[in-house]
Amino acid sequence: MMKNIIDLTKVFLISSFRKGGGKKKNRILKIILYGILFAYLIGIFAFLSYEILTGLIALHQQESFIGLVLMGIITLVMFTTVISTMSVLYFSEDNRFILPLPLKPIEILSAKINVLLAYVYLEELMLGLAPLIMYGIITGQKFLYYLFMLLVLLALPVLPLLVVTLIVICIMALTRGIRNKNLVQMITMTFSILLSLVISMFSSSVSSSEDVMALTEKAGSLVQIYKKAYPTMPMAIEAFTKFDFLSLLLLIGISLIAYVAAVVFARKLYYRGMLGSLYSSSGISDKKLDERNAYRSKGLLFSYVMKEIRIYLRRPTFFVQLVLPCLILPAFTIGVTYFSIVSQVDKAEFMSVLKMIYENRQYGAYIFAVIILCVMFLSMYSFISTVAISKDGHDAYAMKYLPVPFHKQLLCKMIPDIATCLFSYLSVVLMAIFLFKVPLIYLLISLPLVVFYSILHGFLILSDVRKPKLEWTNEMQIVKKNLRMIVTMAFSLINMGLLSVIAFVFQAELPVMALGLSLLYLGSDVLLYRYIRKKDIALADGFE
Q1: What pLDDT was estimated at residue 522?
Q2: What b/e string do you get for 79-91 counting C-beta neighbours within 10 Å, with b at 16 or more?
Q3: pLDDT digits over 493-537, tens only?
Q4: Count of the separate structural domains present in the chain
Q5: Helix count (H) and strand count (E) of the chain?
Q6: 19: left (phi over 0), alpha (psi -120 to 50) or beta
Q7: Weakest-pLDDT range from 3-17, 164-178, 200-214, 369-383
Q8: pLDDT confidence of residue 507
Q9: Is position 487 within any domain?
């Protein structure tokens, strides 16, 4: 059995990370691009870690940095696992091929969980490794620290991943009898939102402001706050800060026991849910189209846009991978930030400090920049434009023969992506007003810039027009095995870097920054619109 699990894990990993194969030149380019992006992110986290550590060392609370990083890892694991569990366990393209094979459900489930763990370890490389190495360098830790660090990072995410995975498996098993994939999507989305809120509230109840004030008076004791945040956190922190071998063994032992128990308990439930996901109906009505009035009542372009939106909402893979993150990520990031702050300081004092900041014109540009940076960060997870044509497969060839100019069709396909960016902005605006009491003037000033930025984000569809991926047999090949999705991440990171330099390095005034960036994005939108209108026929003939 163990050999089958190892072999299946290798096959699933190759299928997940190969990105559909391709020419050797494309594979090398992919590695280079991912390497540059990874190095960029590592640099950002290393710089932030240095700044945070410098402040904590001055307060003799540097050990609390370890708790902060480990809690961030657990939070990220529980959030991303909600999305990745659905795609890996139920909407994977290889499920139809492995079912007829003489494999036991426990072997399939174990291999799938191993793939989820591989995803988590990659996230740890980005979020956890650089800050913890920075901590070791600044505080002068010895080799034993780095050995314990690697072992803790291997064991810590296992339990939170299993908790989320088991809940999703139970939900999918229960919905097998409900032969409607749309309902399964809604249940999963609801669970994701509830999970995010639970994490936010749980983080806020870690400690009261009085506890924090009492602990800050004692050097090195602030780390005790994070020990209350999660069952295995005390063992992880003890292993890090005191090199406690017993705590490390307990952490590894609990993780292994939980892994085995979860697989044994969920093997039949997973098999039941996988069958339901493969053979349940989509829930899409078979009502015939009234061709005489379908496009006359509301217009051809409106019908085109609504057709695009329905595709993303009705297909489980597109909904879970492309739409769901854009719906829940804004509330998750802003909510966790707010409740984490107010749980450790007096809310009234915190609001009074914010009021003083808002009344100081010097900080106006910083507030504006933070709002825009939040929107740019959230837009990093909107991949709709980069797959807008590829998602249609062979049906995309019909675009060349429809009685609608090709550039107008591109604009229609951009609208769902633009809408997700504006939804992120609206979420940030509402939470900024009701949670952080940000004056409305900053939000009104940022609106034109965000609108122009969202339109420019929609023009990322040009990366998919050049060589769309029309040859695919499963939707997962589009949303998970598409190199062009890195374009979205690179676009957001470049703009975040540009804004950070303007706001925090050159310290530009608010009117100059708002007007300058708005004109920059507006000019880019106009140029790209003129480009697709001028190259209308050439773009349509670009893919054969």
Answers
A1: 96
A2: bbbbbbbbbbbbb
A3: 889 888 888 888 788 888 889 999 999 999 999 999 999 999 888
A4: 2
A5: 24, 0
A6: left
A7: 200-214
A8: 84
A9: yes
